[in-house]
Amino acid sequence: VLISWPTPFSLVIFLNIQFPYLLQDCKFCWTLFKVKQKRAVFRKRKPFYTVLDCFLNRVRTRPDKPLLVFEGREYSYQDCDKESNKIARALRKHGNLTQGDTVALFLGNEPRFVWMWLGLCKLGCAASLLNYNIRAKSLLHCFSCCGAKVLIAVEEVLPTLLEQKASVFILSKECNTAGLQTLVDKIEEASNEPISPELRSNVTMGSPAVYIYTSGTTGFPKAAVMTQERIWAGTFYLFINGASSEDVIYIPLPLYHAAGFVIGLHGAIQRGMTVVLRRKFSVSQFWDDCRKHNVTIIQYIGETMRYLCNTPKRESDKMHKVRMAIGNGLREEVWRSFQSRFGHIRIVEFYAASDSNIGFINYIGKIGAVGRENFYQKRFFPHALIQFDAERGEPARDSNGLCIPMPQGETGLLVAKITTIAPFIEYARNPEQTEKKKIRDVFQKGDAYLNTGDLLRIDKDNFVYFQDRIGDTFRWKGENVATTEIEDVLTALDFIKDACVYGVKVPGTEGRAGMAAVTLKSGSEFDGTEAFSHIASYLPSYARPQFIRIQNSLEITGTFKQVKVKLVGEGFNLTIIKDPLYLHMDKDKCYKPMTMNYYNSIITGKMHI
Asked: Domain AMP-dependent synthetase/ligase: where (predicted)?
């Protein structure tokens, strides 16, 4: 019998049928290999080659190229270098900063945010990136937990911070508040000459670079430590997806988030790109900005893409140079709508978190998927989806006390093995929460995995889909919201006895809107106006409950944990709920009784919350 060997053509056809994504997987893994080689080259030049070193190299090779474009002005790489030199000198002199100190930045998106960060790098200091929406106790907590000794803000902050024996600088030339120091005048007086590398001589790739905050179940945000190594690794997201020095990236996301700060800003520096920085996202100015500045790459969160799709259609919708959008949280229907309306822009959806040791990238472009599992990832970043017991709020275990892996195609809790290659870096000054983030004895006694807190699904083709979050956090308006912090604010009201906060689905929106089930103190009545005023004083807009449900009692488990599963399932559905229900009305500055008219308007999309 003669055996006929397959021709190269038939072999390609066979492989393409059996493994339709093999070539793309190989190409992606080859790109990762090139990234590894590139980093090795940098290490030969300098053992500890940080993002600052990369920036300074750009200053030497392309000093006049714009790094930042902001509100009509351009700032070259050299401009940013000189401004950061002045800031470094001013802070060293007046803030008494030395190598290893931490400075908290309570700033919005503007060039001085970038200059501050670069200046701190030049002094060998770390930056704590505070969410400028937080107030009261959360602000004090975030400042204290990272061990910061200096706070830089654009507005007057809590007098309590002065009791921490910290230096508080305001970005202005004048200030009449005792204890606060002006900074702009001091920066203007400082020299822009280069800062000596000796001032950062002890910085290694393992040194803390920034603290980025993530919502915690304790009620306060947790400070995730991002080392120089972690920042450097995050810069390659753009490189992996084909960005070059000729691209212009548009960043409307807050720089206190890892997406805007690491992937956007530092990814641009690594590539030698130009950043068009927006103070805050504007749906009306978005495409005009992109056209004006010849933007080729945009950053997004799912909610911003939905806002863009909801605007009235214009003839100029496809008149732009944007070729790629990178971000997360994009729903399948919005994905299709966006590409249909604004042109076939390549969407690069990814899954990652500032406190996680695992991530996925949808480099194929599969609509609806947050990433793809490949052989490289399985080999070097062991992970699994395990069964989660929603009632008990913890992973399910078998008779041997080990976790139960989920079959392919079914939803499970994502856990990632903690290894030397994929470490979990502790939360700053929070050993209790650091330990709670770990799951031990997962597949064998003694092992340790990171609990991402996210429910995912992986299909037969190895595409990864985000399903939901677990625990005491939910996501709304692109922000992670800690339920216990809201509960503390609610129970501070004179008429509320207990509160249970959770997230509920709202048709046509991303994430979950905040909802609270509360009980009232004996003899008290709910005051919608007072509740609105109190909540607005202590919580940022995205954390304010959109619905408040009044109950006679809150159901708890035998271990005194609140039962939220039923509440989440009922949502704000007036056809099910018989309890008094109130709706957050921003325009009227109060919580008003929910009516069927309001309910129908919300679920049909006529009323936006």
From this structure: 57-361
The CA distance from 160 to 140, in Å, is 7
Gap between the Cα atoms of 370 and 104, Å rounded: 32
Cα end-to-end span (Å), the chain: 73
Q: Render pLDDT for 157-213 as a digit per residue (tens, 0 to 9).
A: 767 777 777 899 999 999 888 888 999 999 999 999 999 999 999 999 999 999 999
Higher pLDDT, 548 or 132: 548
Nearest CA among 371, 383, 363, 287 for reference residue 329:
371
* Both structure tokens of 599: 């309910």
Cα(420)–Cα(228) distance, rounded to whole angstroms? 16
Of 326, 275, 320, the residue nearest 304 (C-alpha): 326
User: Rounded CA gap, 606 and 511, in Å?
Assistant: 18
Average pLDDT over residues 253-260: 94
CA 497 from centroid of its chain's CA atoms: 33
The pTM score is 0.85
- Dump pLDDT digits (tens) for 328-342: 989 888 899 999 999
For CA atoms 586, 133, 507, 509, give the dihedral sign: positive
Q: Which residue has the higher pLDDT, 103 or 138?
A: 103
User: What does the alpha-carbon distance between residue 260 and residue 249 come to, in Å, rounded to a whole number?
Assistant: 11
What was the pLDDT predicted at 4? 60
496 - beta bridge partners? 520
Predicted local confidence at residue 468, as pLDDT: 79
Helix axes 111-122, 51-61, angle to 10 degrees: 110
Alpha helices per DSSP H over 406-482: 431-436
Is the pLDDT at 139 greater than 60? The verdict is yes
| Two tokens, residue 394 | 């913890």
Write the single-letter amino acid at 129: L
Tokens of 420: 């030397």
490 near 499, Cβ under 8 Å?
Answer: yes
Positive or negative CA dihedral for 110, 111, 114, 116? negative
CA-to-CA distance for 243 and 35, rounded, in angstroms?
Answer: 13
> Which of 173-177, 353-357, 448-452 shows the lowest mean pLDDT across its residues?
173-177
Mean pLDDT of 87-93: 97
| Residue 569: Cβ-neighbour burial (10 angstroms; 0-12, 13-18, 19+) | exposed
Residue in 576, 589, 479, 603 with CA at minimum distance from that of residue 534 = 589
Structure tokens at 165: 């024996």
Considering only CA atoms, which of 252, 213, 207 is closest in space to residue 230? 207
Long-range contacts of 328-331 (CB under 8 A, 24+ apart): 328/259, 328/301, 328/302, 328/352, 328/370, 329/301, 329/302, 329/303, 329/466, 329/475, 329/478, 329/510, 329/511, 330/300, 330/302, 330/305, 331/302, 331/306, 331/368, 331/510
Provide CB contacts within 8 A for 294, sequence distance 6+.
248, 321
Question: pLDDT (tens digit, 9 = 90+) per residue, 144-161?
Answer: 899 999 999 987 676 777
